[in-house]
Amino acid sequence: AQKEQKQQEERAAKRMAHGKAVQRQMKECQEQLAQERAVCFEDGKRLQKEMQKHADRIAQLKRTRMEELRATGLPERYCVGVEYKALKPGPKC
After folding, report:
1. Torsion of CA 64, 69, 75, 81, to 10 degrees
2. Partner of 47 at 20 to 30 A CA spacing, among 11, 21, 54, 64?
């Protein structure tokens, strides 16, 4: 009877140790997933800033080209049409 009780206690201790190990693994996995999500979020913010910087640069180039076109003496009615087509907002992605 004492031997059986000792075996049961050993089995219970093994089950507890296994349960704690599984919980630790789950916690580590959740922490890793949270870190990965944070990295993806930061990458998204960085890419968005780069895209905005690129769009601003293109808009500035278009304005510069329009100033150069007006400086050539092209009639204003043509400049307005070109400016409308060049500066109208494009589709948002």
Report:
1. -60
2. 64
Looking at residue 83, what is its pLDDT? 84
> By the 8 A CB rule, do 62 and 86 touch?
yes
The terminus-to-terminus CA distance of the chain in angstroms comes to 74
| Secondary structure (DSSP) of 45-76 | HHHHHHHHHHHHHHHHHHHHHHHHHHHTT--H
- Does 18 or 92 have the greater pLDDT score? 18
Gap between the Cα atoms of 39 and 25, Å rounded: 21
Please tell me the distance from the alpha carbon of residue 27 to that of residue 31, in angstroms, as a whole number.
6
Per residue in 9-58, pLDDT (tens digit) is 999 999 999 999 999 999 999 999 999 999 999 999 999 999 999 999 99
